[in-house]
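Appendix B. Chain record.
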Amino acid sequence: MIFRDIEEKIVPWLKQNKIIILKGARQVGKTTILKNLQKKLVKEGNVVHYIAADLDFADPAFGDPRLFILRLDDLFGDKTGYVLIDEFQIIPNAGLFMKTVYDQRQEKYRFIVTGSSSLELTKNSEFLTGRKIEFIIRPFSFREFVRAKAVDIPDRLLDPRDGLTIRTHADLYGKRLQELFAEYLRFGGYPESVLAPTYLRATVLKELLSTYVRKDVAGFLRVENVGAFNNLVKVLSSQIGSQVNRSELANTLRINQETLNKYLDILVGTFVFYLVPPWFTNPRKEVSKMPKVYVTDPGFLLATDVAPSPVTPYALLNGHLVENAVWITLTNQLGIDSVRYWRSNAGAEIDFIATRNSTSCPIEVKFSLVKSHEPVSIRNFRHLYPGTGPAVFISKEQIEVPENGSPFILPAYLVDYLRWETLFESL
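C-alpha cells predicted for this chain:
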C-alpha cells in the first residue's frame, strides 16, 4: 500500500463537523484513500460503513434522503460513526440529498464522500456551503512514484536553503532519481499504470483515456461532438506550457467559441488539464489575458499518442515536460491558486510566480546550463514589485544555494523533494 501525502492533510479534519469531499479524476486513487481512512478509523475503535454509490445506485434509499437516514439508523443502531460514500455525485440531486442528511444527523454521523467530476461536484456543493471541506486527489506525485518504485531511497523533504544536505542527497541518489524522473515523465503517476508491468503501461493509459471519453465526456456530461473534443485533447497535449489562444483553437477545431469554452471547462473540471492564469495585481487583467496549459499527469500525453512509448534519457528530456512536472509539484505543495506565470508587455516571461503569505518568488525552468545571475525578466519583475522573494532556477544537474540573496539553482529531479514553503519563511 503506497502512502499518499494528501492523507496527512485529510486526517486532522476527521474529527471536525464537516462533510469531507475527496474529488479527482478517474483512477487517481480516491477509493483507495477512502479505504485507508476507513481502516484508520476502525483501528481507532470507530463504527464505519462504506457505501459505493456507483454500484448501489438502484438502491431506493438513494431516491429519498429520509429513507437513507432510516437506513443509516438501522446500520448504526444507537452508535455514532462515519459514513463513507464513494462516487456520491451518482446520487440524484446529490448536493441537496447530502445537505438534508447532514442537517438531520450531523450530531450522530461524520461523512466522507468522493466524486470524479468537479463540474457536477461544484453544482452539488452549492447546497453544502459552510458544511464541507474539499481535497483534490491527483495521480502520484514524483515523490510518491519513487515511494512505489524504489523503497530504499529516503522519503524525506529537503530544505532548499540547506546546500550541503541537497548535494549529499544528489551524490547518493541522483543518478537513480534521474532515471526514475525520466520514467515518471513518460508514464505518469496514475496508480494502475505505476504498478503495472512496463509493457502494459501504455495500454493501461490508453484504456483510461478511452473510459474517460466514453463514460464521463460522452455519457455523463453528454458531449455530442466527441471527435472535436478528442482533437482538442490532442492539440492541448502538444502545447504544454504554452499560452492558449481560444480564437485560434476554435478555428483549428472548426467549432464556435461557446463550444470550445464548454470543452475547456470540462477538461479542467474533470481534472485532466489546468489553465494557469497570468500573474497580475489587478484581477480584472488576470481574467482577460491568455492562460497557459498544463496537464495534471504526464502519462496522459502518452495516452493521446503525443508522446512516444520509449523512455527518453534524463539528459534529453523535453523542457516543457520538465516545466509541467515543476508545476505539479508547486501546486501540490503551495496550492493550485498560488502559482501563476508572468509575461511583460514586451514579451519577457517568467515560467512561474509562486505566492505565499503575500510574498512572490519567481521560478524559471532552465533544463540546461544555468548562469548564476538573474536575467532581465526577473530584474524587471523585481523593479515592478519590490519585496519579491528569492528567484529559483530549475536546472538539469546544477546545485547552487546562495548564503544570501538569489538565485537558487536546483536540479529538476529533486524538485518534488524540496520543502518549498521554507523559501518564504525568512522573508
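Further analysis of this model is presented in Appendix C.
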